[in-house]
TrEMBL record:
<dbReference type="Pfam" id="PF01047">
    <property type="entry name" value="MarR"/>
</dbReference>
<dbReference type="InterPro" id="IPR000835">
    <property type="entry name" value="HTH_MarR-typ"/>
</dbReference>
<feature type="domain" description="HTH marR-type">
    <location>
        <begin position="34"/>
        <end position="166"/>
    </location>
</feature>
<dbReference type="GO" id="GO:0006950">
    <property type="term" value="P:response to stress"/>
</dbReference>
<feature type="compositionally biased region" description="Basic and acidic residues">
    <location>
        <begin position="1"/>
        <end position="26"/>
    </location>
</feature>
<feature type="region of interest" description="Disordered">
    <location>
        <begin position="1"/>
        <end position="27"/>
    </location>
</feature>
<dbReference type="GO" id="GO:0003700">
    <property type="term" value="F:DNA-binding transcription factor activity"/>
</dbReference>
<protein>
    <submittedName>
        <fullName>Transcriptional regulator, MarR family</fullName>
    </submittedName>
</protein>
<dbReference type="InterPro" id="IPR036388">
    <property type="entry name" value="WH-like_DNA-bd_sf"/>
</dbReference>
<keyword id="KW-0238">DNA-binding</keyword>
<dbReference type="InterPro" id="IPR036390">
    <property type="entry name" value="WH_DNA-bd_sf"/>
</dbReference>
<dbReference type="GO" id="GO:0003677">
    <property type="term" value="F:DNA binding"/>
</dbReference>
<dbReference type="InterPro" id="IPR039422">
    <property type="entry name" value="MarR/SlyA-like"/>
</dbReference>
Amino acid sequence: MGVDERNARGGFPRKEGERADRREAGEGGGWAIAEEVEWHLRHVSALLKQKGRELLQETPLTPPQFIALQWLKEAGNLTIGELSAKMYLANSTVTDLVDRLERGGYVRRVRASHDRRVVRVELLEAGRTIIDEVIRRRQAYLAGLLRRFSPEEAEQLRRLLARLHAEMLREFESGRPVHRDD
């Protein structure tokens, strides 16, 4: 069964010669479900990101510039080092990226009043406007897809994704796994 068939049927195929569902093989812990959920989340995320990149083509921003602006919108003013850490990029790469955003009028560098050595990157109105528009259009795309669900299904999906997100955050913020498979 190909990926298209998997998507059409909503099933999760096994590779030729691979063991049947781990539950069928007597393994517990929801591994088969986790495998399928992980696959779907990864692919939904990739498709949503691809839609966002299509929308970005109508703007002067590159995907990394968009991501930087998103972080600034969500987290507030950040230093180059803080933004670099959030984006998993080298400081030099983010410095160049911020230079281009600053030339475009989307951000500005601001020295901290408490320590003039500290420079923060501030999102300007032009940056906020372009981020809001791309996100609004991406959300409109998602809303169109969710209209294919019943209101109850859409709400259940929202609730379950919020719960999964909360559980993952709880684990991440505690610095230790909530569940370990030893």
